Structure formats: C-alpha cells, structure tokens
Amino acid sequence: VSTQSTGELMEKLLIHYFCIVRAHLVDMIPKIVMKFFVRKLSTHLNSILIKSLYTEEKIADLVQESDRVTKKRKASSKMMMVLLEAEKLVSDIAVGRNMEY
User: Fold this and answer.
1) Containing H/E element for 51?
2) Among candidates 10, 6, 8, which has minimal Cα distance to 18?
3) Are 27 and 21 in contact (CB under 8 A)?
4) 55: pLDDT confidence band, cut at 50, 70 and 90?
5) What does each C-alpha distance from 18 to 4, 11, 14 come to in angstroms?
6) How far is residue 93's CA from residue 45's CA, in Å, rounded to a whole number?
C-alpha cells in the first residue's frame, strides 16, 4: 500500500467521520434547544401558576365548602348525635337502669 493511497483513504475516512458528526449535531441541536426551552418554561410557569393560585381572593374560594358537602356534613353530624343517643339508651338497658322518656 502506497503512501498516496493511505493518505487518500485517511482523507475519505475523515470526510465520512465529519459527515457523521455533522449529521449527529444537526439531529441533537433542536433536541437540546427544546430541552432547555421546556425546562425554563416549566420552572417559570410553575412559579407563575402558584402565585396566581395563592392570591387572597382565591384562597377563600379554595377553602370554601360546597353546599353539597355542607349538607352532607350536617346530616352526618345529626346522625352521629342520634347514634350516640341510641348507644346511651342501649347501654342503659343493658345495665338495667331506669329509662326516662
């Protein structure tokens, strides 16, 4: 193998190598740009959304109980009182106490 053919082979290999590297860079650059864009956007968007969520007027709306939940809570509380009274009556009967009506 002559020196000239070895040099031509090296030149072809280097050109081919640089074509591969260039294709890889062309493929990676948009991905890297999008990665940084999404990371920055998510960081800033997260803080903006949290700030907008925790304003004074919105906090009152967020912690306010819905009418359905209020009715259910009151009904459950009333049922609890009835059950406690029933438990007391059953307990009084079980120990043989005088019941007052």
Assistant:
1) helix 3-53
2) 10
3) no
4) confident
5) 21, 11, 6
6) 65
Question: Cβ(89)–Cβ(99) under 8 Å?
Answer: yes
Torsion of CA 19, 23, 26, 32, to 10 degrees: -120
Which of 5-14, 54-63, 85-94 has the weakest average pLDDT?
Answer: 54-63
**Residue for token pair 């912690």:** 63
On whether the CB atoms of residues 58 and 65 are closer than 8 A, the answer is no
**pLDDT band per the 50, 70, 90 thresholds, residue 34:** very high
- Give yes or no for a contact between 65 and 73, defined as CB atoms under 8 angstroms apart: yes
Rounded (10°) CA dihedral 49, 55, 57, 61: 50
The 10s digit of each residue's pLDDT in 76-101 is 999 999 999 999 999 888 887 655 54
